[in-house]
Design goal:
One of its GO terms (biological process) is peptide transport. This is Oligopeptide ABC transporter substrate-binding protein. By secondary structure, the protein is α+β, with helices and mostly antiparallel strands. The protein is built from 18 helices and 23 strands. The chain is about 25% helix and about 20% strand. The radius of gyration is 24 Å and the shape is globular.
C-alpha cells in the first residue's frame, strides 16, 4: 500500500479542457510520437518540487507520510507492480499459486542494491521479519500479519516464521494462515538490505543513518546528498536492473506552493504536483503541460472515539460517541461550496470512504448522503440535547455543560490550508457549535494521530486507497491507521467476509456487494465525514519527455528524459 497517506491530496474532476491542458492519454500519445521521431536522449538534470519538507524516513519499510513516499519512489522498487487496471504484475519477482494460500515467488537474478550487493530472497525475509518484530515502530505489520506464524514470531513464541520457506537465493515459498482473495495484494513486497542494516537493532532502525541520511534501494536513482528540510540530490544508478536511466540526476527541492508557478515559468522547476489554487496559472504557461489521471484519494473529517492501546483501538473517549451529533456536524458542512472555493471546482463531494474510480465504489443511492442542510443539523442537535441553555447563541452539551469542538488541521507551507480549515469551523459555528481551530506542523500532526494524542479530537485527513480495495488497514478495529479509533463489530465482519475465499470465492461481484454493504454501514455510523475526492495532476515542463501517469501513478523515472534545446 505504497500510496497510503495523509497529505495535501491533489486535484480534480473536471471534464473541460483549456487550450494548454491535455488529457493524460493525449499527452502520452504526443510524447510517444516525439520519442519515435528522435528517441530518448541521455543526460541532464531534472528538478522536482516537494510541497512540504519530508519527515525523513527514506526507507519504504518505515515511512509514514506521502512526501517521504515521493522521495522513496526515485530510489526503490517493489517486487511486484500494478497496471492501469490496478492488477498486480511481475516486477522484480514473479509468482504462482493454486489455492491463494501457498505462493511461490521467483526473483530475477542480478538485481543490485545501490551498495553493489545482489538482491536475494533473504533480503525479503529480513524485511518481513523486521516488520513482524515486536520492536518494529512502523505502521506496516498489517501487511505481514497474515503470513502463517507471524503472530507467534511477534509474540516471541517462535524464532522463525513458519510460513516462510527459502528454497534458494532466488526462490521462496510463502504460506498464509488461510486462503484469501487478496493475500498477494496485501502482502509486503519490499525487501530490506541485510548488509546495510547488519548489527542494527530493530528498535533503532527508523532513526538510523541507513534510513535518514544514507538510504539505499534497488531503484533507478541513488541518493547523493540530503539537506534536511531543503533538498535531496539523486544520481543515476548505472546498474539499475531495468537499464541505466536517461537522466544523469534528479534534484528534489522543497518549494513553497506559492512560488511554484514562478519557478515553472522561469524554467527553474521541471516537474511538480500542485494545489488546485495554482491550476489556472499553470494551465496558462507556454512551457508547461498538465497531465491528469483518475484519483484514488479522498479527504475526510474524523472524530476521535477512543484510544490506541498498543495492539487495538478502544472506544473510550465519549465526547463524540453520540451518532446524532456526528450526523449533525456532517449536515452542517457545505461540501460543494467548500470544494469550489478551495479546489476551484476541480473535485467533487464523496459520500463514502472509497473513491468513485475504484470498482467497489457504491452508488450514492446505496449509502447515507449528508447534503448541506443546516436546518437538519440544528434539528438533530436539538433532538440529541445539544441546546443553547443560556441564550448566548452557543449550544451546551446534554448535561448543560460547555461544549466546544476542537478541530485540528495540519499546517504546511500551503497558504490555503488555514482558510479551508477555518471555513469548516465556521460551518459548525453557524449551527451553534463553538469550534476552536488548531494547526500543528504537518509531521507533528501525523505523529499525534498515530499516537492517539488526546489533543486530537476532530481532525482533517486524507487517504489514498490501495490497488486492492480492501480498507481493513485503515478502518479495521485493530488497525493503527484507524485514526478515529472506531470499533464496530459489523464493520469488522464485513471486512473479513470480503476477503474470505470461503465466502466470496473468486466472485468479484459478490465481493463488491459486501463492500457496498460496508460503505452503507460506515455512512450510517459516521466515524468520519467524507468530504471530497480529487484527481491526480502533475505539471511537467515541455522539455521533459517520457512522463506518463495513470490511476496506478507515474511511470518509472528511469524512462524520463530531457529534450535537447
Amino acid at each position: 500500500m505504497l500510496l497510503l497517506m495523509l497529505t495535501m491530496l491533489l486535484v480534480a474532476c473536471s471534464e473541460e479542457e483549456g487550450d494548454k491542458e491535455k488529457e493524460n492519454n493525449e499527452t502520452q500519445s504526443e510524447e510517444g510520437d516525439k520519442e519515435e521521431a528522435t528517441g530518448p536522449v541521455d543526460g541532464g538534470t531534472l528538478v522536482y518540487a516537494l510541497d512540504s519538507a519530508p519527515e525523513g524516513l527514506f526507507n519504504i519499510n518505515f515511512y509514514g507520510i506521502a512526501v517521504d513516499a515521493e522521495v522513496i519512489d526515485f530510489l526503490d522498487d517493489g517486487l511486484i507492480t500494478y497496471d492501469e487496471e490496478l492488477k498486480p504484475q511481475p516486477n522484480v519477482a514473479d509468482w504462482k499459486t493454486e489455492d491463494n494460500q501457498h505462493y511461490t515467488f521467483t526473483f530475477q537474478k542480478g538485481v543490485k542494491w545501490h551498495n553493489g550487493e545482489e538482491l536475494t530472497v533473504h533480503d525479503w525475509v529480513f524485511a518481513i521479519e523486521t516488520l513482524a518484530h515486536p520492536d518494529y515502530d512502523g505502521p506496516r505489520y498489517t501487511n505481514v500479519q497474515t503470513i502463517k506464524g507471524v503472530p507467534e514470531f511477534k509474540a516471541g513464541e517462535a524464532d522463525e516464521i513458519e510460513g516462510i520457506h527459502v528454497v534458494n537465493d532466488y526462490e521462496i515459498e510463502i504460506t498464509f494462515d488461510k486462503a484469501r482473495v487478496n493475500n498477494l495484494e496485501n502482502l509486503w513486497t519490499y525487501p530490506l538490505s541485510r548488509k546495510e542494516f547488519e548489527g542494527i537493532p530493530v528498535a533503532e532502525m527508523s532513526e538510523s543513518p541507513q534510513v535518514r541520511q544514507k538510504p539505499i534501494g534497488i531503484g533507478p536513482f541513488k541518493v547523493k546528498e540530503i539537506i534536511p528540510g531543503e533538498s535531496i540530490q539523486f544520481e543515476a544508478f548505472d546498474d539499475y536492473w531495468q537499464g541505466k536511466p536517461h537522466l544523469d540526476s534528479i534534484v528534489l527541492k522543497v518549494i513553497d506552493p506559492s512560488l511554484v508557478v514562478g519557478e515553472l515559468e522561469n524554467n527553474q522547476l521541471d516537474m511538480t504536483a500542485f494545489h488546485p489554487s495554482n491550476f489556472e496559472s499553470i494551465q496558462a504557461l507556454d512551457n508547461t503541460d498538465v497531465i491528469r489521471a483518475p484519483g484514488l484519494s479522498y479527504y475526510y473529517v474524523g472524530f476521535r472515539l477512543g484510544t490506541w492501546d498498543g495492539e487495538k483501538n478502544v472506544m473510550d473517549y465519549e465526547k463524540y460517541h453520540d451518532k446524532q451529533l456526528r450526523k449533525a456536524m456532517a449536515y452542517a458542512i457545505d461540501r460543494e461550496s467548500w470544494i469550489n472555493e478551495f479546489f476551484f471546482g476541480l473535485g467533487q463531494p464523496v459520500n463514502r470512504p472509497i473513491p468513485t474510480a475504484h470498482w467497489i465504489s457504491a452508488d450514492d443511492s446505496d449509502v447515507t448522503v449528508y447534503n448541506y442542510d443546516p436546518e437538519k443539523a440544528k434539528e438533530l442537535l436539538d433532538e440529541a440535547g445539544y441546546v443553547d441553555v443560556n441564550d448566548d447563541g452557543i449550544r451546551e452539551d446534554p448535561n448543560g455543560e460547555e461544549f466546544k469542538v476542537k478541530f485540528s488541521h495540519y499546517a504546511t507551507q500551503n497558504p490555503t490550508f488555514e482558510a479551508r480549515a477555518k471555513a469548516i469551523t465556521q460551518y459548525w459555528n453557524d449551527v451553534g457549535l463553538a469550534t476552536k481551530l488548531e494547526m500543528p506542523e504537518a509531521n507533528l500532526y501525523y505523529e499525534q494521530l498515530e499516537e492517539a494524542d488526546e489533543s486530537m479530537e476532530v481532525f482533517f485527513g486524507g487517504w489514498s486507497t490501495g490497488t486492492d480495495p480492501d480498507p481493513t488497514a485503515l478502518w479495521g478495529s485493530d488497525q493503527l491507521w484507524n485514526y478515529p479509533r472506531w470499533v464496530n463489530e459489523k464493520n469488522d465482519q464485513l471486512l473479513a467476509d470480503a476477503i474470505d475465499i470461503n465466502v466470496v470465492g473468486q466472485d468479484q461481484e459478490k465481493r463488491k456487494q459486501i463492500y457496498m454493504e460496508w460503505q452503507k454501514n460506515v455512512s450510517e455510523e459516521v466515524p468520519m465525514i467524507t468530504i471530497a475526492e480529487l484527481e491526480e495532476v502533475m505539471a511537467v515542463n515541455t522539455r521533459v519527455q517520457g512522463v506518463e501517469m495513470d490511476v496506478s501513478g507515474l511511470n518509472s523515472s528511469h524512462e524520463w528524459w530531457i529534450k535537447p534545446n
